Amino acid sequence: MERGVFPRPEIVERLERFVLAKLWINDPDPAARSREWREMLEKRFGTSSIPLYVTLDGDGREIGGGRLDFPGGGTDAFAADLAAFLDAAL
């Protein structure tokens, strides 16, 4: 989904105004730390849904439109949802 949406000019323009961080938690190795990361997401954000997009301020507080989790409806719908989500945090 990211490959079809994040390179779009209207999304790039918005993302350039954020500091981006990515946490990979879907490690196929059951002995990996993925379970810990999922538990951390559940505790911190109330969900371990992936992908999960969250906007935070410099103090780690959620800002803007809250959270955007697993998109439905295809890339065009996700692009519109993501643009609105990012706009709410600007």
Pick out its properties.
alpha+beta; two-stranded antiparallel ribbon; 2 strands; about 45% helix
Summarize the model shown.
The chain is α+β, with helices and mostly antiparallel strands.
Number of strands: 2
How many separate structural domains? 1
Q: In percent, how much strand structure appears in the residues? A: 5-15%
SSE pattern, N- to C-terminal: HHHEEH
Could you describe the 3D structure shown?
By secondary structure, the chain is of the alpha+beta class. It has one domain (2-89). Helices cover 43% and strands 12% of the residues. It contains four helices and two strands. It has helices spanning 2-5, 9-15, 34-45, 74-89, and strands at residues 53-56, 62-68. It has a two-stranded antiparallel ribbon. Strand 1 (53-56) and strand 2 form a beta hairpin. Helix 2 (9-15) runs parallel beside helix 4. 6% of the residues are buried. The model has no long low-confidence stretch (mean pLDDT 86).
